[in-house]
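Posting for a labmate who doesn't have an account.
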Amino acid sequence: MMMDLQSYIGRIPNYPKSGILFYDISPLLAAPQAWSYCVRQLTDRLKPLQADLLVGIESRGFLLAAPLAIALNIGFVLVRKKGKLPGKTIGYTYDLEYGTDTLEIQQNVLDYGKKAIVVDDLLATGGTMQASINLLNKVGLEVAACACLIELCFLSGREKIKSPLHTLMQF
């Protein structure tokens, strides 16, 4: 059974700043049938990859990665902005439109496997997703694929991603 997932995505104009249309997954999260449908669909797509762990990107990527990790019976680790993770971390700095940003992962991530899937709620320009892939490669992890609920096709983020990408909705 196909489900119209796009009807569960809120559209908030001028957020977080003027001229931006924010795609809000909150209504989807609040609808148990639609939310569990998303998790099942991505589980079916990702299971054949036989990854060891899911890597969720701060912060809405955590919401998707956690139930997917349970469904796939694999580990889940976090990629966060600099200074947000305890213990020893490894960072990767990347360019933004105006400046730079740094993502980090805990150093002990290699204790949990070698093959990862990167998860976020939405793919826009692809910068953060590709930076996460680069960080995982830096620490010696193979990135089997990436997964998102939403892809904003008009921003061409898929073109930057150097791994297979699975999405459930395209705008």
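Reply:
Got it, the structure tokens are right above this. The chain has four helices and nine strands.
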